[in-house]
Fold this sequence. Notes:
Elements lengths: L11 E3 L2 E3 L6 E5 L6 E6 L3 H20 L2 H17 L1 H12 L3 H21 L6 E4 L6 E8 L2 E5 L7 H13 L2 E5 L5 H14 L6 E3 L5 H10 L3 E7 L2 H11 L5 E5 L4 E5 L5 H13 L9 E7 H16 L19 H16 L3 E4 L14 E4 L6 H4 L6 E7 L2 H9 L6 E5 L3 H10 L4 E4 L18 E2 L12 E8 L5
Parallel strand pairs: 7-8, 7-10, 8-9, 10-11, 12-13, 12-17, 13-16, 15-16, 17-18
Antiparallel strand pairs: 1-2, 3-4, 5-6, 6-20, 11-19, 14-15
Helix pairs in contact: 1-7, 2-4, 2-5, 2-6, 3-4, 3-6, 4-5
Bound molecules: adenosine-5'-diphosphate.
Amino acid sequence: MLDVNQTVPTQALIGGAWQNADTGRRFDVRDPATGHVIASIADCGEQETRDAIAAADAALADWSAMPAAGRAAILRRWADLMIERADELARTLTRENGKPLAEARGEVMYGASYLHWFSEEATRAYGDVIPAPGADRRILVTRSPVGVCAAITPWNFPNAMLVRKAAAALAAGCTLVAKPAAETPLSALLAARIGIEAGLPGGVFNIVPGTDAAAIGAVLTASETVRKLSFTGSTGVGRKLIAQCAPTVKRVSMELGGNAPFIVFEDADLDAALDGLMASKFRNSGQTCVCANRIFVHDSVKDEFAGRLAERVAALTVGPGDQDGAEIGPLISEAAFAKVERMVSDALAKGGRVLTGGAKHPAGDLFYQPTVIDAVTADMDVMREEIFGPVAPLAGFATEAEAIELANDTEHGLAAYLYTRDLGRAWRVGDALHYGMVGINEGVLSSAAAPFGGVKQSGFGREGSRYGLDDYLEIKYMLMGGLSA
Ligand code: ADP
């Protein structure tokens, strides 16, 4: 069982109280590095979800009426406490998710940065006064919280994906019911406990962990009380949830899958491109939605780039996340592992060439060798689907136009990367890429100051930046008339 500390809650948080499921059911959380059970968590369902929605509704009036500076102070304290307890949060995160401890710590700091950011934005939800089409009138615009919101979050960033939604929602004056992924509920529960210690009033932030995601999701989406759903996860589940939100005309933010192109032009700084690619591709063992998924390198530098990449990748240290120096941890589940194996086999059957890796790693059942596959083609699964594993597929291209066409040939549009030292090309290609985020000579582009989100079937809505608050605010227009003497 969980031996990293004794402070991680194992129950649902509803209305400020820690509660078991009414049925008494519990589910196990496993360490993906060892397969060992590390915790047993309350397995919530429809009833607890309804209770959490009622608690969020009851808390809404006071929370939204609190001056923004008051909400900001609590969010700031929450961030400061998370930073103080970053080691404990990181250890818990690594145990349930598998990522290297240094990355887990980075994620906790990243999550906290959204709390800091939105604690500041909370006080800037400005309205407008607009010149009216008549001298005796004024058009007033105010922005008010959407109301009770729901969040459904994935296992790959179990702290940050939840905290950055909570930061924006709570800053705006909304209250929240969150369902974390069943693989990784501990980080969410621990972050919530710290939030309560920071002064979050009961009911403002509720967490309903559970294995029956469809049942919890059905209650959240059907509820007339819940006025907005923010989801981060797969495109398939996102589509379902959008449909489920239609009958109540709920607002939705969707941060869905990606299929990021990483383009290296012949004029690029190859050292910088390699550094950027290693960070973009192999962070979290390749399990992020902004990971480089398809690597396109100009024909004139491809062989050199591929050789140097394979050397760097072969030197990565694979091992449990809490092992000193580990850079690549386990994949999250057997299903994830089987998917990576299937995609590599498919690539090899269609003519791909393994430069390094290409098989299971002896560190444990869910460890896959960091892999580079050259000579990939558009018909391979590695080019069409999100890989979510430490596998880097490489293809060549001849012209800028071809690179753009290859890069845009996907239903997804989350993150894209390009490396060039030509300023004109940087703008041309950056403009031509149909993506919500473009890293130009940078492999890691996410920060609280920037709007994170996708276009096309990668979703809509933005998290972080000054735009992030808009997702949780309604615009109201009031016309004030009769002003003439
Ligand atoms: P992943 O492939 O990363 O696990 P998912 O989209 O399956 O992505 O999961 C992301 C989140 O969505 C998790 O919290 C998961 O439990 C939840 N989820 C999965 N299916 C549903 C569903 N039908 N309704 C609501 N939530 C769901």
